[in-house]
Design goal:
Helix content is 33%, strand content 25%. It is α+β, with helices and mostly antiparallel strands and 163 residues long. It has a six-stranded mixed beta sheet with strand order 2-1-6-5-4-3, covered by helices on one side. The chain is elongated and about 70 Å long.
Length: 163
């Protein structure tokens, strides 16, 4: 039989763990990585889009090919940043759209688990552009498809706004 004291102890441990996750520092030096060349690791807790001509050795089911947009790279960066920045619990961690390289952090609603989303905006010919995106979870083995859904959602909304 589980006692009230045992349940209280478990609750305290869980609250402490949540506190640790919520207060874990977001180190730009660690998380601001080039999405094309970043080492994706061996856990299925990430998703990446790369331009069609990216020097990627192989593509897994966790990778896709980025669209090419009929707008200058500066416009793509500004619109994508607007889409990302207006999503819930998102903030810029490093870089800027003007630099053409940004890393965002988005935390889950309840526990505050951080995901890091690095984006590089790239020219693709005259007045055309594309992007590379690498979205990954800091904690856990799998992400349940959250990173794929986020990246595809942000790219779809960017495409709609540039329509």
């Amino acid at each position: 039989m589980v006692t009230g004291a045992a349940l209280a102890a478990v609750a305290l441990v869980l609250l402490a763990a949540v506190g640790v996750v919520r207060r874990a520092p977001d180190d730009p030096e660690r998380w601001h990585e080039d999405p094309v060349t970043a080492d994706v690791g061996d856990r299925p807790n990430w998703f990446r889009l790369t331009p069609p001509d990216a020097p990627v050795d192989h593509r897994s089911e966790q990778e896709g090919v980025s669209p090419v947009f009929d707008v200058p790279v500066e416009r793509l960066a500004a619109v994508f940043d607007e889409v990302a920045s207006t999503d819930d619990r998102v903030r810029r961690l490093a870089g800027s759209p003007a630099e053409g390289f940004v890393t965002y952090v988005q935390r889950s609603a309840v526990v505050g688990f951080p995901d890091y989303i690095s984006v590089r905006f790239l020219p693709s010919g005259a007045d055309r552009s594309t992007l590379a995106v690498y979205s990954r979870a800091r904690y856990g083995y799998s992400d349940g498809g959250v990173n794929t859904q986020r990246v595809r959602g942000w790219v779809d909304e960017t495409t709609r706004r540039l329509g």
